[in-house]
Amino acid sequence: MKLLEIKDLTIHYVLDEDTVEAVNHIDLALEKGEALGLVGETGAGKTTTALGILGLIPDPPGKVISGEIIFEEENLLTKSAGQMRKIRGEKISMVFQDPMTALNPVLTVGDQISEVIKLHQNIPIAEATARACQMLEMVGIPAERINEYPHQFSGGMKQRVVIAIALACNPTLLIADEPTTALDVTIQAQVIDMIRDLRAKIGTSMLLITHDLGVVADICDKVAIIYAGEIVEYGNLTHIYNETAHPYTKGLFGSLPRLDIMVNRLNPIPGIMPDPTDLPQGCSFAPRCLNKCDRCDIEPPQNHEISPGHIVRCHLYAEDADDCREVK
Amino acid sequence: MHKYIFKRVLMMIPVLLGVSLIIFTLLYITPGDPARQILGPDASPEAVEALREELGLNDSFGVRYANFVIGALHGDLGISYTTRLPVATEIFSRFPTTFVYALLCTIVSMIIGIPLGIISATKQYSIFDNAATTFALLGVSMPTFWLGLMLILLFSVRLDWLPASGFYGPQYWILPAMTIGMNSSAYIMRMTRSSMLEVIRQDYIRTARAKGQTEYKIVVKHALKNALIPIITVVGINFGRSLGGAIVTEQIFAIPGLGKMMVEAISARNYPVVQGGVLFIAVATSVVNLLVDILYAYIDPRLSSQYQSGKKKKALQASEVTGGTAK
């Protein structure tokens, strides 16, 4: 059963002079109990997609232009603010990128964990506090630190607190927005291990936003590669890692440092991401693509399912695109 | 915390010494003879000279300053030249009026300024925000003496609703409180607005939204407490300033407070009253500042750990490193 299905989602930030086309016609699906990795560069629209699911796009300037976000068979985009508040924190919760700023500095961590419990579960305060203690222990922080403030914790511990808040109501969907980016490498591994263990324990589905392909391979079942607000390739781990199809995904793997091959220079994808206020008319990736052909500049590519469940958005895989393949 | 307060109280000593030296020197070099002022223009030079001797005005600067400081340390601020009463008695008879007035102005300005600022910030660029910002600009720009006179003109002279001067009961309080309240509430509103705007863009506000918290609670519980420090600073400054006597408004509304006393004392060259008054204002301002600083610690736990004694701080840091429990 599909837990979350995003269809044709388009989100723009409408500014005075320009319109930032942050997310363009995204389709995504997440089965119950699965973990989906959403991988892309900075500015590709990953966080906007996540905030869109929660209905937290800052408006103004953000506007959902089109699409549906179907969660447990209901379209979240047609729900009222009050209905969304009931879903946020209880059914869908989010772990944010930077634990240093994600916690309120003037409230104790206990307050911040029990707040979400009190909001969604009709239980006495003492019980909510007890539950907050349990959550702290679950993420590996001694429960007696419940009355301490965020500044008394280290970065890794703050991220654990953020995770405890996110998991306090046993959500059906956890959105983790680059949960390890702001942490140093040794702590990253701890946090990733913890997320994987807790997910196994609670059975939460997860949307993991990251630019780290290694982390995705470690904990995700499906992967979506996002570029300039579009999903360019979607599939399971085998599809993405072993049968890489899209030139951008190939470029991503090509630019990873490898332990087994001696190289003097890394091999980055040439060029930079297009300006989201002025996207190319054809394929967004065309200016940087090594397999570019004439129609890439003119016509946006369609989704092509090259094997069951493996979708690629590229002219290379169009049935009538022999000319493109020849150039390659 | 106690150690911090003790340290701050100790630090008040050099401040007060400095203030007393400056005010004493200023009065010393000001032209005008108090003895002549007291006796009037018809008095004989001999009588004036005799009075100068009696008041100790013929002593050298050092002796006079030392006498003043020693007296002040004993709680003796001298005798008022005009009323022949001890200055301390004069100050304390007028202080309650000024205190009530200052408190009133502060409360009025907070009641107007803080909610306006919050609504302005949460509804940035709305019609309400524009109206409130315009009100604040008006409030900051209008001089209090002019606003006070206009209010008297409208409510006392034209409409005859409220008394124009004096300070005898609640109906007398309204116009002066409106005059100062309009001005300081504008400052508080602007500070609240900018401070709230900064806070509501923070990540932890987004975290609160992601929890499903209501907008009202997000503003009151999560945002306001974080935005409070600059607001309290402005409120504290305003309160401290009005404690020293709102000189202009007290004069306009004939409020028998410290401000009016000081103005009268200055024009009469009533040195002991001016010195004692300034010293008292310095003490009051220092105490208000200290209270504001202590309040900071209650609002922001990060500051209270800074106020803690060195030993405790070290223990806390050590426990942070080991990830253990701070005791």
Automatic annotation (TrEMBL), chain A:
It is found in: Cell membrane. Residues 4-253 form the ABC transporter domain. One of its GO terms (molecular function) is ATP binding. It comes from the Bacteria. Keywords: ATP-binding, Cell inner membrane, Cell membrane, Membrane, Nucleotide-binding, Translocase, Transport. Coiled coil: none annotated. It is a peripheral membrane protein. SUPFAM superfamilies: P-loop containing nucleoside triphosphate hydrolases. Signal peptide: none annotated. InterPro entries: AAA+_ATPase, ABC_Ni/Peptide_Import, ABC_transporter-like_ATP-bd, ABC_transporter-like_CS, Oligopep_ABC_C, P-loop_NTPase. PANTHER family: ATPASE AAA-TYPE CORE DOMAIN-CONTAINING PROTEIN (PTHR43297:SF14), OLIGOPEPTIDE TRANSPORT ATP-BINDING PROTEIN APPD (PTHR43297). Belongs to the ABC transporter superfamily. This is ABC transporter ATP-binding protein.
Automatic annotation (TrEMBL), chain B:
InterPro entries: BPD_transp_1_N (IPR045621), MetI-like (IPR000515), MetI-like_sf (IPR035906), Opp2B (IPR050045). Keywords: Cell membrane, Ion transport, Membrane, Nickel, Nickel transport, Transmembrane, Transmembrane helix, Transport. Signal peptide: none annotated. The keyword rRNA-binding does not apply. Residues 95-292 form the ABC transmembrane type-1 domain. The chain crosses the membrane at residues 9-29, 99-119, 131-159, 171-189, 278-299. It holds the Pfam family BPD_transp_1. Belongs to the binding-protein-dependent transport system permease family. OppBC subfamily. The complex is composed of two ATP-binding proteins (NikD and NikE), two transmembrane proteins (NikB and NikC) and a solute-binding protein (NikA). This is Nickel import system permease protein NikB.
